[in-house]
Write a structure and sequence with these properties.
The chain is an alpha+beta fold and 345 residues long. 45% of the residues lie in helices and 24% in strands. It has twelve helices and twelve strands. It has a five-stranded antiparallel beta sheet with strand order 2-1-5-4-3. A five-stranded mixed beta sheet has the order 7-9-10-12-11. A two-stranded antiparallel ribbon has the order 6-8. The protein is elongated, with a radius of gyration of 26 Å. About 3% of the residues have low confidence.
Length: 345
Amino acid sequence: EQKFKDLAEQLPQTIFELDLEGRFTYANRYGLEFHGYTLEEAGNGINAMDLFIPEQKQKAIDNIAKILRGETYDDHEYSVRKKDGSTYPALIYSNAIMQGGRPIGIRGIVVDITERKKIEQMKTDFVSFISHQLRTPTAGLMGYIDNMLDGITGELNDRQAEYLTEMRDVCQRNNRLIADLLNVSRLERGVLVANINPVALREVVDTAVKEHRKAIEQKGLALNIKEVGKGIVVLADTDKLVEVLKNVIHNASKFTTIGSIDIEISSRGSEGIVRIKDTGVGMADEVAKDLFKKEKVFGAAIAVGGGAGLGLYIAKGFMKLQGGDIMVESKRGKGSTFIISLPLK
């Protein structure tokens, strides 16, 4: 017991125990000093709720209740408040203290992630800066190439036209990548906002399909759009919803060589639903469960089929901004179905 107590006192992280009322029954020396409290104040019963900002107290109470019931919870990040009123970002990991088969308190550790947040912000700012710097020359190249293809600089032979068309395609792919990088940067910084309005779901789907219809037909794929119930209206940001749909339809086309892409518009309870189903290569369960996670986007080299794999991470962020969601159901070799949901008007 003394050995582990000595170790806890030496750790440069806050280690704590609480009773069922939320009062501290133990905190290591580092934790007390870091938060500005004395051992005497701790002995008088500091309540853990005093260390949470008002906006997060209910989340903390709900998570404590889950821990005491033996349930798991995903959101460990909080803004923790010191005695002087200053706050810092932290991850809190904890579990129930059991005695005789019953919980008698909470034991855990608080990890200060201030430096990690600063590094993440620096990376995000760097991506934003580089993306802006790349966008201008790429747009200029596109303009010159379009002028040449339009014949402004003189008549082109077939090979020149072929090369210029390929160059334009490369520029368009780079433009899309730059736009994705900027969207990731904005999502990470929390500066994106959603302009929510009533939106006719069929009209948005038709707008998104328009850009990819020709490519789908050129691959010999069937494109079927079905609306179950007419005039379904959701609350959404039109531009962001179109981007989400375009991304999913683009992926469906890219990873499908035979068969069809089926889009179904419907409603369920208080939600409007768009299902985009393809007959493509599909994916394994372990890939599907991490498809929208930031860690997988930035941890992987290149996405299957080319690209940086940013689109679906952005799509998830866009849907959350609109109060909706995007999910996937898929089996390797049997295609994928993306389900997009938004609140009905």
